[in-house]
Specification:
The protein is α+β, with helices and mostly antiparallel strands. It has 2 domains: 3-59 and 87-103; 109-238, OB fold (Dihydrolipoamide Acetyltransferase, E2P) (Beta Barrel), CATH 2.40.50. 31% of the residues lie in helices and 23% in strands. The strands form 2 sheets. A 5-stranded mixed β-barrel has the order 4-5-6-8-7. The radius of gyration is 26 Å and the shape is elongated. Keywords: Membrane, Transmembrane, Transmembrane helix. Residues 6-115, 155-246 form the DUF1980 domain. InterPro entries: DUF1980, DUF1980_C, DUF1980_N, UPF0703_membrane_permease.
Amino acid sequence: MNKQAQAVVMLLFGGAIVRASVTDMYLRYVKESLQPFLIAAGVVLIAAAVMTLVHEVLRPRQAEGHDEHADHGHDHGDGKPHREPWVGWLLILPVLGLLLVAPPALGSYAAGQAGTALSSQQISDYPPLPPGDPVKVSVLDYASRAVFDKGESLGDRTVQLTGFIAEGPNGEPILARIILSCCAADGRPIKLGMSGNAPAGLPDDTWVEVVGKYTDQTVTDPVNEETIPYIEVETWTQIDPPKQQYE
């Protein structure tokens, strides 16, 4: 692969990054706060590719014999030009995949393969919940208060959570949400059992909004032996997947 071809691949890759970054697609790979850095990286790649192409087109042409070797391969001392390995063109496949295919965000399959990450998110101080019922809280916030604060900061408040349906330890539906430290590669689930008027008959990865109250019921995650808290569901509603599917 010569420099011009390398520049074209880099141009496509930079364009794919910018395209993903200015749409909601990038949210399937990284946290929302990283958008400016992605855009900057894509712009740098595009600029480098354009500069390389301009340099290759405008540079003074060399001797004809040398041009033949530059165009058709390299002379390794035997008088015959050798072509670059075609396998280099495989570098364009990830670029085409990013341009043409939009993989879904991590969901129930990822949640089933990894243990709940609640223990790594433990904090010691839980501020009072905002006024009004139901109060919107994240799955992570509710689960942390339920396990590490023993539900004291939840009390008898009514809370509203949003997550997707996954299969629980005993085959029952649970509410889950994927949390990220940086990108989808380090995504881990927060799992929440549901009692009371829990959703039933919904396929995995269905997004729901549940309203309910704290319960001290728990179950052990068989993947990593960590505690999965429960919520006593009063009502639930099926919803479309949110723009930001990670917490």
